[in-house]
Structures are given as structure tokens and as C-alpha cells.
Amino acid sequence: MGQPESRGDALGSQLPPGQRHQRGWPVTHYGPVPKFRPERWEFRVFGTTADGDKHRWSHEEFSALPYGTVEADLHCVTKFSMTGAEWGGVHARTLLELAPPAPSVTHVMVWAEYGFSSNLRLSDFTAERTIFATHKDGELLTAEHGFPLRLVVPHLYAWKGPKWVRGIEYMTADRRGFWEERGYHNIGDPWLEQRYSYQEERGDGPEL
Ligand SMILES: Nc1nc2c(c(=O)[nH]1)N[C@H]1C(S)=C(S)[C@@H](COP(=O)(O)O)O[C@H]1N2
Ligand SMILES: [Mo]
């Protein structure tokens, strides 16, 4: 028997196993909703960058980056899915070209307000549909849903996409983020139902 295969980011009416449709768009996160202060906000790319420098964008600069859209569902690990959203914002690939990682980089830590974080394999980050969203269905995100910026990684569970994201760190080894340290799966592929860290197999993540 072969390994089950991931559906990846295939679109369709089908939901990942164990998920059910949720009408509307619930708000799900840990902790308070941060207040947005445009003059204090910046987006930072740091860690093992190709040129060894940190890169930063003010809110005004970030807003001027090339805008793209992606259609994607949100799958919460608590088993509801919000489907059919069109996300607008800056593709992760765009940022990667503007501030490239060194060749030794294998993983990315995505950092948000209050120290919330989530780790991704570089390949998840560079996936075609991974997007730093400012908009949903043509409207600016609301504060509860991550304004001014959230990450959407269509092919992974929604906790892999921090709301109120403030930057990324290029890493040369994997390190667990906030939920990945607290019992959730290090990779988090919903098509493989990788919900909890106890399901991890060797090679899926750093020792717990
Ligand atoms: N900063 C931050 N981002 C977060 C979370 C969080 O606790 N903090 N929760 C994640 C989880 S578990 C889900 S399901 C989605 C929910 O997004 P929504 O509230 O816009 O539906 O946000 C994700 N992003
Ligand atoms: Mo979630």
C-alpha cells in the first residue's frame, strides 16, 4: 500500500476529510485583537536572507507592492471550513523575490502581533497560492479577521496563516511555531488530516 496522497491545493466542492461547511465567517484566534497603528507598523524580513540584511516595509510601502488574488478555502483544525473566498494581497513569491532567502534556507517562521508565530516549509511558503492578504472578496479585512495583513496558505490548515502578520524569518532548520509547540501537527496538511503532533511521523518535525 502506498502512502495517502495529499490533494494539495486542488480546488473543488470537496472538503478535506472530517471537515464541514460553515456558513458565514466565524472569528477564531487566541488572545486579543491588536490595535493597528500605521505609523508603528512595519513588515520585516529577517533571518538568513541572501544578502545578510534585514528588509522592511512601512505600511505605505507595503500597500504599494504588486496586488494579486487567490481563491481559497479556510480549513480550521476544529473542523469547520469557510469556502469560496477570494483573497487579495501580495503573493508570498513576490516578497521572496524582493527579499530572497540564502540558498541554505529550508523553513520560514511567520511572525504576527503579540509573538504569535507559525512555521512553514520553504516549499509551503513559495507555493503559488500562498498570499499575504489585505482583502477578502474585494473588501479590506476587518480587525478581527487580521487587518491590516494576514497570511493565507490554501493547502494547509488555517492556523498556518497568522492574522496580524508582521514579518517572516528565514531559517536554516525547522523550529515549531505557537500552535505547533502546543499539540498541533508540524506540517498541517488537511487532506492528510495532519491535525495533531502525536500523528507526526519521523521527519515531519523537530523533536517535541
Ligand atoms: N495571530 C493569529 N492568527 C491566527 C490565529 C491566532 O490565534 N492568532 N488562529 C488561526 C486559526 S486556528 C484560524 S482557524 C484562523 C481563523 O481565521 P478567522 O478568524 O479569520 O476565521 O486564523 C488563524 N490565524
Ligand atoms: Mo483554527
From TrEMBL:
Region (Disordered): 1-29
Oxidoreductase molybdopterin-binding domain residues: 31-179
Pfam family, one: Oxidored_molyb
Name under which the protein is recorded: Sulfite oxidase-like oxidoreductase
Provenance organism: Streptomyces tsukubensis
Lineage: Bacteria, Bacillati, Actinomycetota, Actinomycetes, Kitasatosporales
